[in-house]
Amino acid sequence: MNTSTVADIVALGAPVLCLDTCTVLDMMRDPTRDSVHPYERQAGCDLLAAAEGGPRLVALLADQVRLEFQDRLQDVEDEATQALGKLKALVNRIDAVAAVYGCGGVADLSHLDDHVRRARAIVDRWIRVARPARQGADVPARAFDRLNLAQTPARKGKDSMKDCVVIETYLEFARALRNAGMSRPIVFASSNVKDYAGVSGSALKSDLAQEFTALGMEFAPNLAAAKHHLGL
Fold this sequence. Notes:
- The chain is α/β, with parallel strands linked by helices.
- The protein has helices at residues 3-12, 21-26, 38-52, 63-100, 115-129, 139-148, 161-179, 193-196, 206-214, 223-230; strands at residues 16-19, 58-62, 131-133, 186-189, 217-220.
- α3 (38-52) packs across α5 (115-129) and α6 (139-148) crosses α7 (161-179).
């Protein structure tokens, strides 16, 4: 970990947002999903503006998150493109059926033609503005221990090593920030609620919650919740 990076962040006096892979990719996922809500996307854009506009917010991106992002980006983009194509085909078919019954109206969905491109641009801006949270030399060993003990986000029967590396990286960075005197909010945002929050869908599982509490960290299942915890 770069100690000068930690010192720079503390000096800014801004809250810190730790991003998970799924949270960044959520900004460009298929908008026809039932789980997509405009207020969450708006919160993501608001937080991006705060991170780009100066010392109002520091966004962190773990090395492992950056790697996963590059691996999954094209699949998420293709999924959104295909879903919008299906939506247009469905609406066109419904229009044709309506015409059979004497209604000649045609729905105009042309505003969606460049939606995926605009969403991709938002995600690219997040990646550019986020500061790297470098993976410390001890992170893999701690992540492996977490995996073997099935500590959140690990669970029996699932290969959660990558998730464990991500959370250990952010815990290490948060510890360094607190030791350097930072008192502003630190929030980890992940929509992977199944592994992090379990049944509740919003509150961390108890074992990881204890680690977060010790470091004054908060968990957010989406960027709207992150915006609230960050006080922005």
